[in-house]
Specification:
The complex is a heterodimer of chains A (112) and B (115). Chain A has 112 residues and is an all-beta fold. Chain A contains no helices and 11 strands. Chain B is mainly beta. In chain B, the strands form 3 sheets. In chain B, strands 2, 4, 5, 6, 9, 12 and 13 form a 7-stranded mixed sheet that branches. A 4-stranded antiparallel sheet of chain B has the order 1-3-8-7, with no helix packed on it. In chain B, strands 10-11 form a two-stranded antiparallel sheet. In chain B, a hairpin with a 5-residue loop joins β4 (31-37) and β5. Chain B is globular and about 40 Å long. The chains are: A mainly beta (112), B mainly beta (115). The interface between A and B is medium-sized, with 23 and 23 residues.
């Protein structure tokens, strides 16, 4: 069964620390990988996407992809209380016909 | 400027009614989507649509139907509403060309409550 898995958390980190969010996916042929942030009562907001193995950095965010291990992660450096949200991993699984398959999300809490 | 917009933001209705949710995008994207987010916050694809094909998630009841008057709009029509249809519905859009799939941008959501 095609699926995307995340630890539901909550993941609690102190302000200024690195938050590490992880995601695994079932299909080795998956092509595109996305991280969305969703605040309570709001819509998912795209924060990172990655298509190739390795790291991709954007400001305080780094996405890491390892297709051999079927693993994608998001690192948030210098975490801020405003980063407290649910982070959704989404994957274009092979055979999903372009549709994103979402994980159930990891709730992150950054404590001041 | 709102990139992906939805109306209404809130919709409260009774079982058995028929309702529609509207979605518009001004990003020039060629593909639009509808997602359902249930009470456990799990986000699940319902439909994707561009001017060439409609892809339906096989788990979606046929009471749900997308309608697209043009490529900037994708409305969701729901017949004979049931209690289990209560959820937040999100519209999204993206480019989708030549077999490549690009990032999707979401609308603000419509919270549907069926009583």
């Amino acid at each position: 069964q095609k699926e995307v898995e995340q630890n539901s958390g909550p993941l609690s980190v102190p302000e200024g620390a690195i938050a590490s969010l992880n995601c695994t996916y079932s299909d080795r042929g998956s092509q595109s990988f996305f991280w969305y942030r969703q605040y309570s009562g709001k819509s998912p907001e795209l924060i990172m996407f990655i298509y190739s193995n390795g790291d991709k950095e954007d400001g305080r965010f780094t996405a890491q992809l390892n297709k051999a291990s079927q693993y994608v992660s998001l690192l948030i450096r210098d975490s801020q209380p405003s980063d407290s949200a649910t982070y959704l991993c989404a994957v274009n699984l092979r055979g999903s016909q372009g549709n994103l398959i979402f994980g159930k999300g990891t709730k992150l809490s950054v404590k001041p | 400027d709102t990139a992906v917009s939805q109306t209404p933001k809130y919709l409260v209705t009774q079982m058995g009614n028929d309702k529609s949710i509207k979605c518009e995008q001004n990003l020039g994207h060629d593909t639009m989507y509808w997602y359902k987010q249930d009470s456990k916050k799990f986000l699940k694809i319902m439909f994707s649509y561009n001017n060439k094909e409609l892809i339906i998630n096989e788990t979606v009841p046929n009471r749900f139907s997308p309608k697209s008057p043009d490529k900037a709009h994708l409305n969701l029509h729901i017949n004979s509403l049931e209690l289990g249809d209560s959820a937040v519905y999100f519209c999204a859009s993206s480019h989708r060309t030549g077999g490549s799939f690009y990032e999707q941008y979401f609308g603000p959501g419509t919270r549907l409550t069926v009583t």
